[in-house]
């Protein structure tokens, strides 16, 4: 899937999203296209784009590539998947992931200080005030079933290196999904997933995670409530992979502007 677009096309998509009411331009897993994306973002800004730009990545970014985005990206949203080289080698085929991710996240925090503002909305007749991020870093970590101590190690590092300087997002929605492929591909996937318990997160694990985050007492931390419902999973065979309650498609790689 995918389509080749020029920097002008990229800018037009961004501006159409802004016109449709989007709150930000969220660039997901673009690390292998940084030079082209940087050109497209610069063009969009040149044409008047005012929305915040969110860099949504695995955390496996080089500082050299991040420097190309400096001044263009407003909010960094990296993963910190694991600090175990053994686990990252098994699941991600990248034994150096922990060191690379820590270096990248440290750079993001240093070069994009956290800025929040308070917004008040009417919710069911009541005024609710919440913080909204204008600039900064949100570090995500997905708890992997059966690997509690891995998450404890990640939170320990974040407490010492990101607390008060970035927002932490601890996620619990790990979900096994069916996979199609050759026998060799299926065997390789099964071997990779053998390093974790390939299942939904249990209620007892959820309780342990809540105790852990309470003990660390981060300044800014989001925790995702446990949910066994898998209806939220995207279907990329559709023009709109997500629920229409979540998003409205503006442009599609096959059909262009919708």
How would you characterize this protein structure?
The protein folds into two domains: about 1-50 and about 230-258, no CATH class; about 80-220, no CATH class. The chain has eight helices and nine strands. The strands form two sheets. Strands 1, 2, 3, 4, 5, 6 and 7 form a seven-stranded mixed sheet that branches. With about 260 residues, the protein is α/β, with parallel strands linked by helices. Helix 1 (about 5-20) packs across helix 2 (about 35-45) and helix 6 (about 150-160) runs parallel beside helix 8 (about 205-215). It starts with 6 loop residues before the first helix and ends with a strand. It is globular and about 50 Å long. It has helices at about 5-20, 35-45, 65-70, 85-90, 95-110, 150-160, 185-195, 205-215; strands spanning about 25-30, 55, 75-80, 115-125, 125-140, 165-170, 220-225, 250, 255. The model has no long low-confidence stretch (mean pLDDT about 95).
């Amino acid at each position: 899937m995918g389509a080749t677009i020029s920097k002008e096309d990229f800018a037009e998509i961004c501006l159409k999203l802004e016109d449709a009411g989007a709150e930000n331009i969220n660039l997901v897993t673009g690390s292998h296209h940084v030079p082209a994306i940087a050109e497209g973002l610069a063009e969009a800004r040149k044409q008047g784009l005012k929305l915040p730009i969110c860099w949504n990545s695995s955390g496996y970014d080089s500082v050299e590539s991040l420097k190309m985005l400096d001044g263009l990206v407003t909010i960094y949203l990296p993963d910190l998947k694991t600090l175990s080289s053994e686990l990252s080698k098994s699941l991600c085929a990248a034994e150096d992931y922990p060191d690379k991710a820590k270096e990248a996240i440290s750079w993001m925090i240093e070069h994009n200080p956290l800025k929040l503002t308070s917004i008040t909305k009417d919710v069911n007749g009541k005024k609710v005030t919440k913080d909204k991020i204008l600039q900064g870093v949100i570090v995500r970590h997905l708890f992997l079933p059966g690997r509690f101590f891995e998450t404890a190690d990640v939170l320990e590092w974040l407490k010492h290196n990101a607390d008060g300087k970035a927002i932490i997002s601890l996620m619990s929605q790990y979900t096994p999904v069916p996979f199609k492929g050759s026998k060799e591909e299926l065997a390789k996937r099964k071997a990779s997933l053998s390093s974790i318990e390939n299942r939904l997160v249990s209620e007892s694990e959820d309780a342990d995670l809540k105790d852990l985050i309470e003990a660390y007492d981060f300044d800014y931390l989001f925790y995702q409530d446990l949910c066994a419902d898998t209806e939220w999973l995207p279907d990329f065979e559709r023009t709109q992979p997500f629920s229409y309650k979540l998003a409205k498609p503006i442009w599609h790689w096959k059909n262009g502007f919708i």
